[in-house]
Specification:
Largest sheet: 7 strands, mixed
Radius of gyration: 20 Å
CATH topology of the largest domain: Aspartate Aminotransferase, domain 2
Distance between the termini: 47 Å
Oligomer: single chain
Strand content: 15-25%
CATH architecture of the largest domain: 3-Layer(aba) Sandwich
Order of helices and strands: HEHHEHEHEHEHEEEHHHEEHEEEH
CATH superfamily of the largest domain: Type I PLP-dependent aspartate aminotransferase-like (Major domain)
Bound molecules: pyridoxal-5'-phosphate
């Protein structure tokens, strides 16, 4: 017998990427940034600690972090919500819009947290397969769902939809549309300019990838003030701690640092993708800080396991067994990975 809600008993667990306890791994499984964050982040966090503020509650709306976001992204304050990571913001949005039995639509494969959040609401999931060119499926554009979600650039594929497609989606949808831009700093452009035109657009961002702050848990949401009001109504009053607010604000003060790291990662991504193709993998064109490498109709679990034995972690998803998702690390790490893959597949003859 179980004390849980029935929906929880039937729910698939969300399985996060592994975080090894031991040192010495080349960690390419959860799309973290291999380069450290701006030194200003540590400085501002220490300052915040020194002010003895941690005995008080933090600013409920994010304080200086929200003000910095206003400057950097050029939106009024009442268009911005600060979150405890973007996962919290996604969580709040699903709770805000979906009752039991309501339909949420998203193209698939994508970030598997959307499925977990739909389960929690007991919402109906409309998971619509991407066509081979990874454009938006027609039935997604025209779906009468209560909520639509699109991850752009998409995870785990890394593929990117041009703004024209996002605009078409917004025009054809009468429901709220979440655009999850976790990886957008690695891509050519953002949907931010569409916010003024489409009051149903909600953009969610994270500091975990491009800003190298996965451990701090900071995310941002941009939307029309009517939607922002709803999110603020249901969020925990003090959802983002003082140290996270200080660190997040500092990161936005040093955009130059983030952009430099992003440029390094993008150039490593281009070189690494070409090398993987030389090894016979199909590599989807990526605009993110990872790539999806595929060997059609092969199960790549053995490769994932052999790499793990050699202390290299990549991501294997049992639902897409012929592919591995590989985070772009430092160039030396990627060289080691290439040599190791070559050694393994040379022996097993994939
Ligand atoms: C990493 C990731 C997130 C979560 O970001 P946090 O801010 O660390 O919670 C959200 N969406 C996608 C697609 C991601 O890859």
């Amino acid at each position: 017998m179980s004390y849980f809600r029935e929906a929880i008993n039937f729910m698939e667990e969300y399985i996060p990427g592994e975080q090894p306890e031991k040192e010495g791994y080349i960690k390419l499984n959860t799309n973290e940034n291999p380069y450290p964050p701006s030194p200003l982040v540590e400085k501002k966090i220490k300052e915040a600690l020194g002010l003895g503020k941690i005995s008080l509650y933090p600013h409920p709306l994010g304080g200086e972090l929200r003000e910095r976001a206003q400057e950097v992204y050029g939106l009024p304050l009442d268009w911005i919500v600060v979150g405890n990571g973007s996962d919290e913001l996604l969580n709040l949005l699903f709770r805000l819009f979906l009752d039991k039995g309501d339909r949420v639509a998203y193209p698939f494969p994508t970030y598997t947290l959307y499925r977990t959040l739909a389960f929690l609401q007991e919402a109906e999931r409309e998971e619509i397969p991407f066509p081979p060119d990874f454009s938006l499926p027609e039935s997604f554009l025209t779906s009468p769902a209560k909520l639509k979600v699109v991850c752009n650039p998409n995870s785990p594929t890394g593929t990117f939809l041009p703004l024209s497609q996002i605009e078409k989606l917004l025009s054809l949808s009468s429901c709220p549309v979440i655009v999850d831009e976790a990886y957008v700093d690695f891509a050519p452009c953002s949907a931010l300019p569409l916010l003024q035109k489409f009051p149903n657009l909600i953009i969610v961002r994270t500091f975990s990838k491009s800003f190298s702050l996965a451990g701090l848990r900071v995310g941002l949401l941009f939307a029309h003030p009517d939607i922002v009001r709803g999110v603020l109504k249901i969020k925990d009053s003090y959802n983002v701690g003082i140290l996270s607010q200080a660190g997040g604000a500092a990161a936005l003060e040093d955009m130059e640092h983030m952009r430099k790291n992003v440029e390094k990662i993008k150039s490593t991504r281009e070189w690494f993708s070409a090398e993987m193709e030389k090894l016979g993998f199909l590599v989807y064109p990526s605009q993110a800080n990872f790539i999806m490498a595929r060997k059609e109709r092969r199960d790549l679990k053995f490769l994932y396991e052999e790499l793990k034995k050699r202390k290299i972690l990549v991501r294997y998803f049992p639902q897409w067994p012929d592919s591995l998702r590989i985070t772009i690390g430092k160039e030396e790490e990627m060289k080691t990975l290439l040599d190791t893959i070559q050694e393994i597949i040379g022996r097993v003859n994939v």
